[in-house]
């Protein structure tokens, strides 16, 4: 791999099939200046390197450090879009798992840490405060971030089912357990 800037400048120019005169005109310098840069008799200033990067469609890293050619804008957009989609999917999963974790902790607390006298306090705290507030917060997050687009309204059904299961999984199961 080439390590000097002069040979990289020359190789990039030749690959674009440009003459020294054409590049000199684009950069606003003389043809002799281009020749001196390519033969490493002198070095371009950073502004000229940036202009050459644009003209030759190579990255600054390629010219200065020897990195590969610049990706096309479409490749860059595709890569960026994939990162954004990946983050959005991760956020969706975290949101739902957070809700499910609160729900599961509430079930565990009911079955392992409450006795008959604690049931009313548990009911007030979980079924009337914690679960509705958690549902409200998760609903806001889903709506604000536009998770699942039009399908986000299906979460109304999901939250309703989870709320009914919370009551069933606690008090109704406890009554059946007693009989």
From TrEMBL:
InterPro entries: Cro/C1-type_HTH (IPR001387), Lambda_DNA-bd_dom_sf (IPR010982). The chain crosses the membrane at residues 93-113, 119-141, 153-171. Keywords: DNA-binding, Membrane, Transmembrane, Transmembrane helix. It holds the Pfam family HTH_3. One of its GO terms (molecular function) is DNA binding. Residues 9-63 form the HTH cro/C1-type domain. Gene3D superfamilies: lambda repressor-like DNA-binding domains. PANTHER family: HTH-TYPE TRANSCRIPTIONAL REGULATOR XRE, TRACRIPTIONAL REGULATORY PROTEIN-RELATED-RELATED. This is Transcriptional regulator. It comes from human gut metagenome.
